[in-house]
Design brief:
With 716 residues, the protein is of the alpha+beta class. It contains 12 helices and 35 strands. Strands 7-6-5-4-8-1-9-10-2-11 form a 10-stranded mixed β-sheet, with helices on both faces. It is globular, with a radius of gyration of 27 Å. The structure holds calcium ion.
Length: 716
């Protein structure tokens, strides 16, 4: 394999020399007579969780990445290359749309729920292959998708003509369960090699037409399955086995890049191909991965989470052996690819990236750029978060808080995980890329300027449309009680609670998932009879997963403790009245097993309504305007149900609950005038409880019987 490197590398150096000769004249589509001029191929190679310091061009000390390095020899190394998010899925949403993913609520990993097509990039967003197709491009994706698992979210439904890979967040490297298009298969080769094989095949099969290849390796994401011996042997110098496995995984990735380059060379396409290489986020906080000299890791907005290896190559157009030090973003790839291919970006939306070509070629002076990051969290007043999360992620008693950053070259203002709730830090990255010296106390004016830029950007975004908080271990979650002979396996309606994954009309504005069911009580013909009942919540058909031992009061929320045993524990009790409907609502988050559950039971004299927003007046409010929001229900509500307008200026961390007035199916409520530049989020909420004095997200969510989707405006 080493000899292949050398051959490969020599050939690439030859290509670079050719490119250098060409760059002095006008651009000639050298040797690419098959493809029309002005239609370069686009190859976007994405690594997964590859640390900034784990490529040799960034100083990796104990193994080399000659093929990835070769891109820097033949192209432009972007020393300040960023992605838009410190972890996989939202980073990819920004990458493929060219828009900050917070504009469309994509801020968390989507739950695995194939029945919910809303857990992915919204249908109205346009992906890069959809932009390139009108110019005659054939578009192929190989590798890890991680942009939703519902059938309507498959890559072949989002612009790619071909797809080979997997849909979720990770895959074993051996015997991987993959899809070709929508057809399932089991891959027998080592997964990284298989993705390389498919990428090579795609290039070979489409060499005579313009193509876009999105090659999204899952390397070097976990699981850390030991790579084939041929890779392990090449890093035998590394004594720490975890590091050696990680290094061998990186070699497989690097070899893959080499084979892609070699194939382009063999097809005489190298000079007519614009190649991007980057990682989707920084390395994890593990001792065998390396972000040095950056501080911080994946899941944080310090440089180590978002500042990645980033190279752009286009021999003959871009200079070779060049280093571009101004900030660039993964958002720029859509804009650059569109410009390079003569494709039109839709003009009905904001694009956040730049066409990098004039700057990378040096034909224009680099602009002053401001880049933004945010991973939103409701904070201590939000619903409980993953109880197994590291202390650095969770906050006591509630949800994680928001982390964010803004970089306006060379200054960066950052509220990273360790600073949630504290003043942000200011760093000068030009001389302190390791973010070691906080300049905020000494430079308050810079802090204020950057914070103002961030606030302005923040107002244009919407709250996350979901949070990744489903505890799959507790499914099915059932009500085993005197009403069904305490059958812990009874998954029939209404005893099985339905999992509701946001964002749906039944979800919450802040994206929390629910388990829900409604029981009809009647002396005859109901699901159960009036009177006192005893029951337990049972998860996973197992006595080891129960929540029980509590007297449940109707129309309030209560924590029900966890119980693990070999038989039913002491039951919950609830008193039910004749002729009513009782809706059980349970906030759903990671790791409920072992901890208590927040349960609310709400009573209505008719089946609960669903609710939606039906209008906003005026549509473009100024600072003088109260905003009237119209709300409609699916059917006339019961006397017990209350209709609220829930509005917020902080993404529902705190909310104003206004009782809506109206009757039948039509209601309205008014948001008072707000200052210019204020972003306002709102939705309609149904509860049987007086929520007008309640502001905290966690409390409102627990007592939400139904909600609309969220709407948003910025005061002009
Ligand atoms: Ca990743």
């Amino acid at each position: 394999m080493r000899s292949q490197f050398c051959v490969n590398r020599r050939s690439i150096v030859r290509a670079a020399i050719t490119a250098l000769l060409l760059i002095t004249g006008s651009f000639v589509s050298s040797g690419a007579a098959q493809t029309p001029p002005g239609h370069p191929n686009i190859v976007l190679i994405l690594a997964d969780d590859l640390g900034y310091g784990d490529v040799s061009f960034n100083g990796c000390p104990d193994f080399t990445t000659p093929n990835i390095d070769s891109l820097t020899n033949t192209g432009v190394r972007c020393s300040n290359g960023y992605v838009t998010h410190p972890f996989c899925s939202p980073s990819r949403a920004g990458l493929l749309t060219g828009r900050y993913q917070q504009r469309f609520g994509y801020e968390n990993q989507p739950s695995v729920d194939a029945s919910n097509p809303r857990l992915g990039i919204p249908a109205q967003e346009v992906l890069l292959p959809q932009i390139l197709k009108p110019a005659g491009y054939v578009c192929g994706m190989v590798g890890k998708w991680h942009l939703g698992v519902a059938s309507s979210l498959n890559p072949t439904k989002r612009g790619f003509d071909e797809f080979f890979g997997f849909l979720g967040s990770e895959s074993p490297y051996y015997n991987a369960a993959l899809l070709r298009g929508t057809t399932r298969l089991t891959e027998t080769a080592y997964l990284t090699d298989a993705f390389t094989r498919e990428a090579v095949s795609f290039i070979q099969r489409h060499a005579t037409q313009p193509f876009f290849l999105y090659l999204a390796y899952n390397a070097v994401h976990k699981p850390y399955n030991t790579p084939p011996k041929s890779y392990m042997d090449r890093v035998a110098n590394i004594t720490n086995n975890s590091r050696r496995v990680y290094a061998a995984m990186t070699l497989a990735l690097d070899d893959g890049v080499g084979q892609v380059l070699q194939t382009l060379q063999q097809q005489n396409l190298l000079n007519n191909t614009l190649i991007f290489f980057l990682s989707d986020n920084g390395a994890r906080n593990v001792p065998f991965a390396r972000n040095y000299p950056l501080r911080g890791y994946k899941f944080n907005v310090l440089e180590g989470g978002i500042h990645v290896p980033f190279v752009v190559q286009w021999p003959g157009v871009l200079p070779a052996h060049a280093v571009y030090d101004q900030p660039v973003s993964s958002l720029d790839i859509v804009a650059t690819a569109a410009a390079a291919t003569g494709s039109q970006l839709p003009n009905d939306r904001v694009y956040d990236g730049l066409n990098l070509m004039p700057y990378l070629t040096g034909s224009q002076v680099s602009p002053q750029r401001t880049l933004f990051w945010r991973w939103f969290g409701l904070g201590k007043d939000g619903p409980p978060c993953d109880l197994n999360a590291p202390a650095t992620i969770k906050s006591s008693g509630g949800s994680p808080g928001t982390i964010w950053a803004v970089r306006s070259s060379p200054l960066k203002l950052v509220s990273e995980r360790a600073r949630v709730g504290k003043p942000p830090a200011l760093y000068n990255l030009q001389n302190d890329v390791g973010e070691t010296q906080d300049l905020a106390p000494a430079q308050p004016a810079d802090v204020a300027t950057l914070k103002s830029l961030y606030d302005q950007w923040n107002s244009q975004t919407i709250p996350p449309r979901w949070v990744d908080n489903t505890d799959l271990n507790i499914q099915p979650l059932v009500l085993a009680g005197d009403w069904n002979a305490y059958n812990k396996n009874d998954a029939a309606t209404p005893w099985r609670l339905t999992r509701i994954t946001a964002p749906g009309v039944e979800g919450t504005p802040d994206g929390f998932n629910y388990f829900a069911t409604t029981i009809r009580v009647a002396a005859t013909g109901g699901n159960t009879t009036p009177g006192s009942h005893s029951f337990t919540f049972v998860g996973g058909n197992s006595y080891s997963k129960q929540w029980t031992g509590t007297a449940i009061n109707v129309d309030s929320a209560i924590s029900v403790p966890f119980f693990s045993g070999k038989a039913f524990g002491p039951p919950n009790t609830v008193s039910l009245e004749d002729g009513y409907y009782y809706s059980f609502r349970i906030l759903d988050w990671h790791s409920q097993v072992g901890s208590s559950m927040k349960v609310a039971v709400m009573k209505t004299s008719a089946p609960p309504v669903a609710v939606r927003l039906s209008g906003q007046t005026p549509t473009a409010p100024t600072s003088n305007d109260p905003v009237v929001v119209s709300i409609s229900t699916t059917h006339p509500k019961s006397v017990e149900e209350r209709v609220y307008l829930r509005w917020s200026t902080d993404m529902f961390v705190s909310s104003h609950m206004i009782a809506a007035s109206g009757s039948g199916q039509n209601y309205a409520a008014t948001i008072p005038p707000q200052q210019v530049g204020t972003g306002v989020q709102y939705c309609a909420v149904i509860s049987t409880v007086d929520l007008t004095p309640v502001a905290a997200s966690g409390a409102i969510d627990s007592l939400t019987l139904a909600t609309s989707s969220v709407s948003h405006f910025v005061v002009q």
